[in-house]
Amino acid sequence: MSVFDKSLPVAIGADHAGYEYKEAIKAYLEKSGFTVKDFGTSSPDSVDYPDFAHPVAEAVERGEFDCGILVCGSANGVAITANKHQGVRAAICWLEELAALARQHNDANIVCIPARFIDLELAEAIVDRFLTTAFEGGRHANRVGKISC
After folding, report:
1. Strands (DSSP E) found in 47-93
2. Is 16 a catalytic residue?
């Protein structure tokens, strides 16, 4: 069961290195009952990751989406880009446990997947864990409250 509002679509985006995983994750989520808004890219042709990370992050920042998913080769570029937006907490996750901690302790609202370093099955499991783990609040809420500049 998702801790995010299923009435709001999940925002997803990727560069060329993450294109195939984005397409597979999008299909996986739709099969699980989520509506997904795809911000691109639409092919494996070389593109610039900020062109897709910014629109996903802006949509989450504006509250149009509870959460987002970004995929690139290492996940570093999309995470750095997304975290420029106020109210966005994008976390690079290459293990399910990191996705759980990003949600529990950091109230992360965008998960960043490193497509060149994990297999698709693990990427889907990370997305599952991210979507089903709640923020613990408490002492973590105070810390999260100190993140924005």
Report:
1. 68-72, 90-92
2. no
67 catalytic? Reply is: no
Which backbone phi and psi does 35 adopt, to 5 degrees? -95, 135
Contact in structure between 49 and 40 (CB atoms under 8 Å): no
Task: Single out the catalytic residue among 16, 54, 67, 72.
Answer: 72
pLDDT tens for each residue of 114-142: 999 999 999 999 999 999 999 988 999 99
Q: What is d(CA 69, CA 145) in angstroms, rounded to the nearest whole number? A: 22
Sequence-distant (≥ 6) Cβ neighbours of residue 84 within 8 angstroms: 57
The Cα 143–Cα 138 span in angstroms is: 9
Exposure on the CB side of residue 148, measured as CA atoms within 13 A: 10
